Every structure is written in structure tokens, then in C-alpha cells.
Amino acid sequence: MKKPFITQIRIKLLVIFLIIFSINSQAQVEAQKQKSEFWQHVQFGGGIGLSFGSNYFSGTLAPSAIYRFDDMFAAGVGVSVTYGKEKYFYENIIVGTSIIGLFNPISQIQISAEFEQLYVNRSYENSIFLDDEYWYPGLYIGAGFNTGPVTMGIRFDVLYDSERSIYANAYNPFVRFYF
């Protein structure tokens, strides 16, 4: 009589195991499906900048990623690194992060709001100038023409400080791309 009882327990344990395994498998399939749906809305891109003259060079690399909520709204984050040098005057390294929000009221027009926090490290070759190290925030409102993966436009820094900004004025042109 003990064998049928043990067999019944084994069958019940096997059924419980199969139910748990089935539920776990279904949960993993759903998690994988949600994960792949998330990445379908993520776009990578950013910007590259070069500026040079007879005695000046500046280069910027600014990768970023956005999450496109729908055809009109997107938000994302980015990082940037800039190296600049004016011969016989100064050399700087600027490292920063940013948070950006994008709004496309129609597919060709893009409105943006961006907060950028930069760490500026500037060293001068002439000792009459003091080397400089500081944090600089920027809050930009921008508008651009969107041509698919590329947007060109202009942005305005509402926190612009002519003494500390790395830009010559509060208006800055931009080229932004996301794929």
C-alpha cells in the first residue's frame, strides 16, 4: 500500500513542479517581450563639433540617447567632452552631462529644452592669467528643423553668464542626430 501513496506524492510533486516551471517560463517570455519593446523606443546619437583657425582648435564629442514616447515627445541624457586650445594663450578641457526633452508639434519642427552641467578646466600659458576650474550650468530652449534623423537649429541659454560661459553669446547653433 505504501507504493501507491508514494507514487501519488511523486505525481503531485511533478504536477506542482510543471505548473511552477510553466508560470516561470511565461513570466520570462513576458519580461523579454517588455525589454525588447523598451529598446524599440530608444534612439542613439548626439553631436560632434570642430572649430579651428590659424591659432585655435576646439573639438567636441557628445554622445546621447533618447527614449521616444511617441511621435511628438522624447527625453534623454547625454555626456560631452570638449578639448580646446588657443596657441600661446590657453588650453581647456570641458566635461559635461545633459538632460534633454524634445517636442515635435509637426514632424519637421522640433522644440527642445535642455539642462547641461559642465566642468570647465582652463589653464593659461601666461602667468598674468589665473588658471580656472569651475562648474557651469546651462539651461537651453531651442528650435530646429527636423529632416528625419538630423535636426538643425538654434538654442538660447537662459542662464547665460558672459564671464563664465564657454560660448561667446547666449545663442548657439546646433546639429543633432538620432538613429
Descriptors:
alpha+beta, Porin, 2 domains, eight-stranded antiparallel barrel, elongated
General description of the model:
- With 179 residues, this protein is α+β, with helices and mostly antiparallel strands.
- The protein contains one helix and eight strands, in the order αββββββββ.
- The protein has one helix at residues 2-39; strands at 42-52, 56-68, 73-86, 90-106, 109-124, 132-146, 150-157, 171-178.
- The relative contact order is 0.12.
Percentage of helical residues?
Answer: 10-25%
CATH class of the largest domain: Mainly Beta
Q: Briefly note the CATH topology name of the largest domain.
A: Porin
Widest sheet: strand ordering: 1-2-3-4-5-6-7-8
Structural class based on helices, strands and sheet pairing: alpha+beta
**Uncertain regions: pLDDT < 50 for 5+ in a row?**
none
- Domain count: the total is 2
Q: Span from first to last CA?
A: 70 Å
**Mean pLDDT, as a whole number?**
89
Please tally the helical runs, counting DSSP H or I stretches of 4 or more residues. 1
* CATH architecture descriptor of the largest domain: Beta Barrel
Q: What proportion of the residues form beta strands (DSSP E)?
A: over 45%
DSSP strand tally: 8
**Assembly form of the protein:** single chain
The major β-sheet equals: 8 strands, antiparallel, barrel
Which descriptor suits the 3D outline?
Answer: elongated
Q: Which series of helices and strands comes N to C?
A: HEEEEEEEE
Radius of gyration in whole Å, from Cα? 27 Å
